[in-house]
Design a protein that fits this description.
The protein is α/β, with parallel strands linked by helices. It is about 30% helix and about 25% strand. The chain has eight helices and twelve strands.
Amino acid sequence: MGRIILNEKVVVGKEILMKGPPLEALRFQGGRVESLVTLTDAERKDFRGRVLRLSETEASIFIFDVFPAPTEPSLEIVLLQALPEKERMELIIQKATELGAFAILPFQSEKSISLMEREAKQKKAHRWQQIAIKAVQQSRRARVPCVGECRPLQEVLEHLGEEGLKVLLWEKGGENLKSVLRQHPAQKIYAMVGPEGGFTEKEVKSAKGKGFIPVKLGQRILRTETAAISLMAILQYELGDLG
């Protein structure tokens, strides 16, 4: 649903007709007449197109450009983010999407604000997926990352897959991030970022039981949104398509 994939070869300068699943993906991405979209053809090449016509059953797209390389990174990053206060979650979703996040899973930890408390101050959780969609449009990505519902940390941990590298930012006893990444090269990474007050010892122990390796970003204490954005950028630089 998050990516427009066609079962045909696309040619720059031509108009294509879109129906079925690709049309549903276009609607999910907020496509409308005159909007610009990134789509992928049967040869896995990414193209840029403009919506010319849009109805309930089909859409017409004019293809005007082709990307020299895939817009989506080969590295699959699932960002697990402790729920912060105010607009910080919106910023994290926006920047993580621009940096190529595959999915973003908000969670509540012992020291983070609860969704109920946050919504009492500012009802914005319903906008999270839309923020990701707008960030995709701005960054010309081909795929919209899924933004999950905010759930308790333990519940999120229970539903993670077994494959891939799992890292957790922990300023108290984490290993050197660069060393961990070079010792454990992977194409899928679960990256967990805690709240302003950090994780408790119990939470770290629980995460380690699910395969997470505590790591740290130097000696300075970063705000949760700074930590999330920095971690995403470092992961893409070391193992993805940045740099």
